């Protein structure tokens, strides 16, 4: 699974990884990445263009909490 590039406008998101793995891609050209596993928290700030995927063969389960207002998701062509 891999999402398209997007941001969450005026929302901040906190993600908790329950199972599997979560890969986040972000940065001015999408060149920055990190992987999170079970027990890890991930913070995504307002207007941060990113995409996420599950690089593992195990099914991934995450919990997402968002705080903000307005449109919750804005899809974009890519970073930059």
Folded structure, characterized:
With 80 residues, this protein is an all-beta fold. The protein has one domain (6-71): Jelly Rolls, CATH 2.60.120. It is 0% helix and 45% strand. It is built from no helices and eight strands. The protein has strands at residues 6-7, 12-19, 22-26, 32-36, 41-44, 51-53, 61-67, 74-75. The strands form three sheets. A three-stranded antiparallel beta sheet has the order 5-2-7, with no helix packed on it. It starts with 5 loop residues before the first strand and ends in a 5-residue tail after the last strand.
Précis, in short:
With 80 residues, the protein is mostly beta strands.
Average pLDDT across residues? 95
Element pattern in H and E: EEEEEEEE
Tell the overall outline.
globular
Number of domains: 1
Q: Biggest β-sheet: count, sense, barrel?
A: 3 strands, antiparallel
| Computed Rg | 12 Å
Level-2 CATH architecture: Sandwich
Question: Can you give keywords for this protein?
Answer:
Jelly Rolls; three-stranded antiparallel β-sheet; 80 residues; mainly beta; 8 strands
What secondary-structure arrangement, pairings included, does this model have?
Layout: E1 6-7, E2 12-19, E3 22-26, E4 32-36, E5 41-44, E6 51-53, E7 61-67, E8 74-75
């Amino acid at each position: 699974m891999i999402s398209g590039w997007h941001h969450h406008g005026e929302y901040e998101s906190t993600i908790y990884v329950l199972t599997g793995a979560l890969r986040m891609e972000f940065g001015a050209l999408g060149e920055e990445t990190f992987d999170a596993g079970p027990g890890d928290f991930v913070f995504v700030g307002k207007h941060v263009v990113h995409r996420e995927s599950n690089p593992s063969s195990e099914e991934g389960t995450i919990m997402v909490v968002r705080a903000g207002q307005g449109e919750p998701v804005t899809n974009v062509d890519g970073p930059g």
